[in-house]
Amino acid sequence: SNKGEETLRAPICCVMGHVDTGKTKLLDCIRGTNVQEGEAGGITQQIGATYFPVENIRERTKELKADAKLNVPGLLVIDTPGHESFTNLRSHGSGLCDIAILVVNIMHGLEPQTIESLNLLRMRNTVFIVALNKIDRLYGWKAQPNKPVRKSLNQQSKDVQNEFDRRLIEVITQFKEQGLNTELYYKNKNMRETFSIVPTSAISGEGIPDLLLLLVQWSQKTMVEKLTFRNECTVLEVKVTKGHGTTIDVVLVNGMLHEGDQIDPIVTTIRALLTPHPMKELRVKGTYLHHKEIKAAQGIKITGKGLEHAIAGTGLYVVRRDDDLEEVKECAMQDMKSVTSWIDKSGEGVYVQASCLECIFNKKDPIILGVDVLEGILKIGTPICVPQKDFADIGRIASIRFNEKAVDHAKKGQKVALKIVGTNPEEQQRMYGRHFDNDDQLVSHIT
Length: 447
Ligand code: GTP
Ligand code: NA
Ligand code: MG
What we know:
- The chain is an alpha+beta fold.
- The chain has helices at 2-6, 23-31, 54-61, 87-96, 112-123, 149-154, 158-177, 208-222, 325-340, 404-411; strands spanning 12-17, 48-53, 74-79, 99-105, 127-133, 182-184, 195-199, 232-241, 245-254, 256-258, 262-264, 268-269, 272-275, 289-291, 293-295, 298-303, 317-319, 351-354, 368-369, 371-375, 383-387, 391-401, 419-422.
- The chain contains 10 helices and 23 strands.
- The strands form 6 sheets. It has a 7-stranded mixed sheet with strand order 2-3-1-4-5-7-6, with helices on both faces. The protein has a 5-stranded antiparallel sheet with strand order 8-9-16-13-14, with no helix packed on it. It has a 4-stranded antiparallel sheet with strand order 19-23-22-21, with no helix packed on it.
- Strand 21 (383-387) and strand 22 (391-401) form a beta hairpin.
- The longest helix is centred in the middle third of the chain and has 20 residues, at 158-177.
- The structure holds guanosine-5'-triphosphate, sodium ion and magnesium ion (MG).
- Residues 8-224 form the Tr-type G domain.
- This is Eukaryotic translation initiation factor 5B.
- Belongs to the TRAFAC class translation factor GTPase superfamily. Classic translation factor GTPase family. IF-2 subfamily.
C-alpha cells in the first residue's frame, strides 16, 4: 500500500571485497568525488558511510529504466576496507547492512578477502550482488561512459566480448567452488537461489546504472519488513570535531532521531544532529548540515555533553517519553559489557580507551593511537596492546607526543590530546584503524 511505502527506510548497503578491487572508486564514481586518491597509500582504513538520495539514483538509472518504481527514500552505502588486517571492520560493516555489494576484479577473479567477505555475508544470511569490476581493463575495451552495461557490451568487438565471457565463466566457476550459484544479472531467472553479477567499471561508470537499480529493486522486493521503522543506532567513532567538541559518528540503522532526544548509555541529550551533504562521506571533513530530526538509514555526527564516554562498536539507545528508563539502561549496559569484557584489567600496564583504534601505514611511526587513559600512568616503555579477537601486541610505547597547550592543560588536570607511538611495526599489519589525521584532537585524561 502507499502508506507502507512512505514509511520504508533507506536500505543499508555494505561494499565488501578484496583490497584494491575498486570499492571506494565505485562509490567515488557514483558520488562524483575523489575520496580514494586522498586515502593513505590508496588503502581504506575505516568504515565510511554515504547517503545517496533517491533523486540521484533516479537520475543515474533513467537511461536503463526511466519508469522504475523506486519506493525507498535513498540508499545508505557503507564502504569497508579490503586489506587483510581489517577483518574486524569488515565484520562490523557486514553486521550493519541489509544488502551488500561484493566487488570482484574481473582481471583477478576471487581473492582471499573476497572469500572471507563472502563467508561473513553468508554467516549472516545477507543477500549480495557481485560487482564484476574493472571491465574497462579488458584488452581492447572501448569505454561507453556511464552506459548500462548491456549497451556497452554490445558495442565491443567480438574479441573483447569473447574475453569477457571467458573471464565471467571463470568467476562463475570459482563461486561454484565456494558453493554458490551466480549468473549475469540480466540472465538470472531466480534471484533467491542464484546471486547476480553486474559487470562494472568505476573509471568509466559503465554498469553503475545497473548496479544501483538492482540494489534498490532487490531491497524493495525482499526487505519490506526489515525496512519498516524501528529504532536502532550504532556508534562508529568517537572524536573531537573542530567547532563541535567531542562528537560521535553513528549509523542510524532504523527509526528516527530528534534534536533533544535523550540517549543512553552516556545519558545525555542530543545537542545537534549533523550530516555531511548528500553524496559526501561522513569520514571526510567538510561542512555539515543541521537537522531537527533524521530518519534512518543515515550516517550522522551527534554533538552533546559527555560523548567522550561513548565506545565505538556499541549501540546507542534513545529514551522516549513512554519508555521504561531502567529497561533502556539495562540494554545499553549489556552492550557496554560485551565490549568491555574484551579488556583484561589484570596484570601490569595501563588501562586505556581509544576514541577509535588508529594507526598509520608509515614505517617511521608504526603505530599511533589516540587514547583516553582510564587508569594508570603512561610512560615510555609501557607495554601496549589492543583488543581484537586476541590482543594485538603493539610493543612498548616508543614516544608520547602532545603539544605545548596540552602540557598546561595536563598540569591543571584537564583533558589533553596524546599521540602514542609503539615499537612493534609488524603488528601494524594486524591492527585495524584509520589514517591518523593531524587535525583530529584526541581527548585524553592523565590520572
Ligand atoms: P581498499 O579499500 O584498500 O580495499 O581498496 P578498494 O577496493 O577500495 O579499491 P580502490 O577504490 O582503492 O581502487 C584501487 C585501484 O584500482 C585504484 O588505483 C583505482 O583507481 C583502480 N580502479 C578501481 N576501479 C577501477 C576500474 O573499474 N577500472 C580501472 N581501470 N581501475 C580501477
Ligand atoms: Na585501495
Ligand atoms: Mg577502499
